[in-house]
Design a protein that fits this description.
By secondary structure, the chain is mainly α.
């Protein structure tokens, strides 16, 4: 029965690893952003892009590219052990491969952030860079702006407040409110 449990456990880790890839390519992401811009401009809707932070700590001793290579190597070793029905070792190597997914996630996250900024610049879309805001705030006050150590993606209430304040400044600074008010007055009079 223990062997069966290790087989099941190895299969679970393998499934998590294989299903943790990105959902869209960088090109598809860029095309999606440009499509949103086209739709919003056709409807006279102003946009603001928000570059969300990535809070994935990586060990300084391993470069991101090396981390990705190690993850792939552990995955291949896990498959080899699974093929010879050594599920205990397969489980160990699938777990290690999964641990290195953070390198791929961070690398892709940074790529997608850069694409968003590039598309925004090319289309004169204002950007709230929450990544930079969090980084600068943490230099002043080293507080965690995320939902604990198990959630490196979603900001906590303090993090959301930082983003909301920056968004408010962007809205006012780009005269979104004034433009909206003027639009209402032109439709309905004073």
């Amino acid at each position: 029965m223990i062997g069966k449990n290790k087989q099941i456990s190895a299969a679970i880790y393998k499934n998590q690893y294989e299903n943790s890839t990105i959902r869209v390519t960088a090109e598809e992401y860029k095309n999606n952003l440009e499509y949103f811009i086209t739709i919003c401009r056709a409807e006279k809707i102003k946009l603001i892009f928000i570059v969300m932070p990535i809070n994935l700590d990586l060990p300084d001793s391993i470069s991101p590219d090396k981390g990705i290579i190690l993850g792939d190597e552990y995955y291949q070793r896990a498959k080899e052990h699974e093929n010879i029905k050594n599920y205990k070792q397969a489980e160990i190597f699938y777990k290690k491969a999964l641990d290195y997914q953070v390198f791929i996630c961070k690398k892709n996250g940074i790529l997608f952030q850069n694409i968003m900024v590039q598309v925004a610049q090319e289309n004169n879309i204002p950007v709230v860079n929450a990544q930079a805001l969090f980084y600068n705030q943490q230099k002043i006050n080293p507080v965690d702006f995320f939902n604990g150590s198990n959630d490196a993606i979603h900001p906590n209430p303090q993090g959301h407040m930082i983003i909301a304040n920056a968004l408010k400044e962007c809205i006012v600074g780009n005269e979104f409110i004034a433009a909206r008010q003027q639009n209402i007055e032109s439709r309905y009079g004073d």
